């Protein structure tokens, strides 16, 4: 299916690896010119070069921390009026809620709630002027079903979700949609690292820890970043213009509820 967005521009945050990269690649495959952001210049440049070579689209690479005011200013200087914004950043650390102090909460809120809100604020009016805009926030299945060790994620991402629910309805008359994608378990560096820690704690091999986690997912496997990216590209396409304010789980059926 042609998504009808060739020649559009997208700002994709936290996109050198994992889910953000999956979104950048899928948008590039639709002919969207990109500005991609991540913290490590070398990895980011390598990703940009690969996307250019594979698709021929323009790819600007901005190495910065998107959770800081300076990082957001650098990203917006490179891409001041994106048609498409994909919000993403690293997730907060796991732990018992008693260990999280005020500074931990502020960091989680900055990364997973206030940064996407600031970027929406900075870009949405130009989208409204043009009568077209697509905003996708990468959040987490923890918004729908809390994960006990991820209190920071459960809380900060739920704050973003509440904000998006309201603002999506405000901008809907102008051809701008805002949706959240909620990943379950995907095969990315973050999950490899989490799995290694879990295997060590349980004194089992990493392979065994992976098998155990997969057994809890009806699809019997982890998701792949490219399938996440294609769902994002669909939400950014012209055919998704009537989908807004939604929270779409992509989790292989792991969430057990009927709705
Ligand atoms: P990943 O570690 O594979 O990739 C993270 C990417 O974000 C990298 O490109 C990294 O450079 C970049 N990044 C991280 N912090 C950044 C910052 N402050 N500024 C700029 N770039 C930054 O991670 P992932 O698995 O793709 O996860 C992406 C998001 O989705 C995270 O918030 C994660 O918590 C969330 N999530 C992931 C899963 C999963 O199964 N992978 C599940 C639920 C939620």
Automatic annotation (TrEMBL):
It comes from the Bacteria. Signal peptide: none annotated. Belongs to the short-chain dehydrogenases/reductases (SDR) family. PANTHER family: 3-OXOACYL-(ACYL-CARRIER-PROTEIN) REDUCTASE (PTHR42879), NADPH-DEPENDENT REDUCTASE BACG (PTHR42879:SF6). This is SDR family oxidoreductase. It comes from Paraburkholderia kururiensis.
């Amino acid at each position: 299916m042609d998504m009808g967005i060739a020649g559009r521009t997208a700002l994709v945050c936290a996109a050198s690896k994992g889910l953000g990269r999956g979104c950048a690649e899928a948008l590039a495959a639709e002919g969207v010119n990109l500005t991609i952001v991540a913290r490590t210049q070398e990895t980011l440049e390598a990703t940009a070069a690969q996307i250019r070579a594979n698709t021929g689209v323009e790819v600007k690479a901005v190495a910065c921390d998107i959770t800081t005011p300076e990082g957001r200013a650098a990203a917006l200087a490179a891409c001041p009026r994106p048609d498409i914004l994909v919000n993403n950043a690293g997730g907060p650390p796991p732990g018992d809620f008693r260990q999280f102090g005020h500074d931990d909460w502020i960091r989680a809120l900055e990364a997973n709630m206030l940064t996407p809100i600031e970027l929406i604020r900075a870009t949405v009016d130009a989208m409204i002027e043009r009568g077209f805009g697509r905003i996708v926030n990468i959040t987490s299945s923890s918004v729908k079903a809390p994960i006990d060790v991820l209190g920071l994620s459960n809380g900060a991402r739920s704050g973003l979700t509440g904000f998006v629910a309201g603002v999506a309805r405000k901008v809907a008359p102008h051809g701008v949609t805002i949706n959240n994608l909620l990943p379950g378990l995907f095969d990315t560096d973050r999950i490899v690292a989490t799995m290694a820690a879990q295997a060590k704690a349980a004194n089992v091999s990493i392979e065994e820890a992976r098998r155990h986690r997969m057994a809890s997912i009806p699809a019997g496997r982890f998701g792949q970043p490219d399938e996440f990216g294609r769902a994002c590209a669909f939400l950014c396409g012209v055919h998704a213009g009537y989908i807004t304010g939604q929270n779409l789980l992509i989790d292989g059926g792991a969430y057990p509820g009927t709705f």
